[in-house]
Amino acid sequence: MNILVINCGSSSLKYQVIDSGSEEVLAKGLCERIGLDGRLVYQKAGGEKEITEADMPSHKQAIQMVLDALVNPGTGVLGSLDEIGAVGHRIVHGGEEFAASTLLGEEVLKAIEECSDLAPLHNPANLIGVRACQELMPNVPMVGVFDTAFHQTMPEKAYLYGIDYGYYEKYKVRRYGFHGTSHSYVSKRAAEIVGKPYGELKTIVCHLGNGASICAVKNGKSIDTSMGLTPLEGLIMGTRSGDIDPGAMEYLAKKEGLDLEGIMEVLNKKSGVQGLSNISSDFRDLEAAAAKDDHAGIRALEAFIYRAAKYVGAYVAAMNGVDVICFTAGVGENGPDTRKGICNYLGYLGVCIDDEANKVRGEERVISALDSKVTVLCLPTNEELAIARETVALVTGK
Ligand code: ADP
Questions:
Q1: Which element (helix H / strand E) includes 252?
Q2: Which terminus of the chain has fewer Cβ atoms in its 10 Å neighbourhood, N or C?
């Protein structure tokens, strides 16, 4: 069965068509600048990227262009749209309502709408993508795969904030966690790689990209993760602050004359390694600066690594041990120095990196030494494949 995977943002949309039998990507690409001018990037497996500039006033037109490209007699990969068996949609926030992927019927879409308050930048855009696909493919089943779902197994002690319990009861203010599809995919794959049952492993997944989070997976279940009510909590990220004393916000607001919106803008867009370095949010730029002994780059990288190592330590405590540590996403997959830097803090656990093996980028590989007490993996994530698998499972009931 061919699955169309859609990750719809407010002005962009990423897509892939995956053959669920072979798990091969038949075609992939993105639509950018939806609502502005419009740009479609389309790439058939083994082919060159094709770029088409064309008006995309709405998501519906964008998806129509994607569908047209997929059935294009010259470069398309499908004979007709009937060859799409189902569409898997990434949905960012499922609140407490969704602990698993689900078929998107009218009631479910309403429930997702109700979670939109919790993710005002993401859920409405995700829903627009679903609605547009429904209009264009009315007979094709749609499945929602939630970033938050995997973390719904967190115990109360991990998901509650230390605030008036009434806020949880009234408004569901609690920690939800994100990147769940990635954490789930990577931790399962890690069990396969080390050849142990998923249900008997203690795994820590470090998803280190522009957005970054760490997850403790015990016996196949997420028991804690670093992001919270929103994706702002936890690690220092590309442009997001991660954990910060809430008191600092009041202080800053007064000093800089900022309102709440201004403070959130600072924490979301002008902080993280970008804010710390004033160089870039991209780790390649920071590593280049650090290589020239530029302290601004060094301090940002050191702070990022230190925060990540502290979270790993915390999750070793939470699980009373760890068998496998995985590094994934842009920096995790491509940053040997970052991986090594984090692992250097973990010597007390018997973590030992094999420097030769660690030279890997973007490939599955064991990067720990033979005598390391914990297996450390470089393990590329594949959220689209995970979404396609979930979609097939729901549609076929297997
Ligand atoms: P997101 O999906 O959250 O936008 P990604 O997982 O794509 O983020 O990660 C993007 C980040 O990965 C980039 O900002 C960059 O810092 C880092 N990255 C990508 N390639 C490399 C590389 N070769 N070396 C070091 N860092 C890299």
A1: helix 246-256
A2: C
